[in-house]
């Protein structure tokens, strides 16, 4: 599979002026995915800015490679580059999405690429909801920074009620699984909007909870609610997200100000230089 192969080579559709013919027999020939590329371009044309997701994995850990340090895509090359550079995507392709499942992984997996429209939202209004056996066990903020307004008891109660009511009325009886993690956003009009769904498993970040804590809450029929309550909270975000997925500084420097095709060339040059060292 293209995403599992070593190196970064953009599909031929990203550079239609390149026929792929090269006098150097050892040159890597770019792959071609005409139908997929056409669908991606159509989504970009329709929505302007899109966010890619492969089945369960969004390549947010690869945002270091994007010129804007986001996963917001406006070109075909950016979509392929993020998917190719993501440890999360690579892990899913290796079967990690099924780790911890009682049932065995299916013999064949139907891979799907979702292209979601990007909408600007306030990160301090995003929350992660943990559902166990079709009951909410916990709710916490997604962005691990301290926010003064989240300390008010009335605000916390309002957030709890908004999310619980929304889940009861729109998700509880319609979502096909009983165990999952749901990310939501509450807009300025107190409307709850679903951002994403993830598996209820260790591979999904439990943020301010431990899974043992969530299990205890479920067994005692509690609904836990947590926010970062002080700027010095040990769980507060102090470093870069997904730092373990980052790369050496010289490679990050090499990616700055370049589009995906230019970065591909720089990447290959760095590899060749390292071989000669």
Automatic annotation (TrEMBL):
A GO CC term attached to the entry: cytoplasm
Domain of life: Eukaryota
A Pfam family recorded for this sequence: D123
InterPro entries: CDC123
Family the UniProt entry places it in: Belongs to the CDC123 family.
Record-given protein name: D123-domain-containing protein
UniProt organism field: Wallemia mellicola (strain ATCC MYA-4683 / CBS 633.66)
Source taxonomy: Eukaryota, Fungi, Dikarya, Basidiomycota, Wallemiomycotina
